[in-house]
Amino acid sequence: MIRVLVVDDQELMRVGFRMVLGAQDDIEVAGEAGNGAEAVRLAGELRPDVVLMDVRMPVLDGVEATRRIVTEGTSKVLVMTTFDLDEYVYSALQSGASGFLLKDTPPDHLVSALRSVAVGDAVVSPAVTRRLLDRFLGSGRVPPRDASVLDVLTEREREVLTLIAKGLSNTEIAATLFLSEATVKTHVGRILAKLDLRDRVQAVVLAYETGLARPGAG
Question: Positions modified as 4-aspartylphosphate (predicted)?
Fold first, then answer.
């Protein structure tokens, strides 16, 4: 059973999420919060598998709440936003969110995304993620990361990370590098472990920040 904490300052939104999620046999709404501070407290108490987090809230916003929850290691966080290129979303990804979805995401996509986050998979569209990174990393407002953090990777792992950053799935990476999917999965696991990353979303962000992938590149 996947336990979810729903966080949104609008009660109607929380009711809607609860109805959608409550109808699933494998998902349980463990609790609800109306602001970020309450979300951090409940995440610590309830230790849900996934926190469905709004970004714009009173008392404590979703970005800072995400950072605190991820730092404490209590739960994974899936951010919900009204705007796919909201500057808060990039901050949320930097803070450790496992991805983001738009609030008008169809119910079946929301459910699928929560299931993916629960098992550590990426849930955001590669195209949306890249557009977000193109905007903020290309603006010069985000300081670059020292590329030496990638020195722990083998040449093959760097190739795989580059393709992850381009939005390729394991199947597509396997076809591109003439490897088996199992081998690619092993490489991805090692990349995440060596770089201390939670998921592919974090890997994409790091690839851009270190210059391994560049805004606007194909």
Answer: 54
- Residues listed for the chain: 218
| Pick from 28, 31, 85: nearest CA to 55 | 85
**Separation of alpha carbons 29 and 3, rounded Å:** 6
Domains of the chain: 2-124 (3.40.50.2300), 144-209 (1.10.10.10)
pLDDT tens column, 114-157: 988 887 766 665 556 666 666 666 656 566 788 899 999 999 99
Helix H or strand E encompassing 138: helix 126-138
Q: Please choose, from the candidates 173, 92, 176, the residue with its C-alpha nearest in 3D space to the C-alpha of residue 129.
A: 92
Question: In whole angstroms, what is the distance from residue 211 CA to residue 206 CA?
Answer: 8
Residue 107 CB-density burial (10 A; 0-12 exposed, 13-18 middle, 19+ buried): middle
Q: Helix, strand or coil for residue 139?
A: coil
Residue 101 β-bridge partners = 80
On whether the CB atoms of residues 161 and 155 are closer than 8 A, the answer is: no
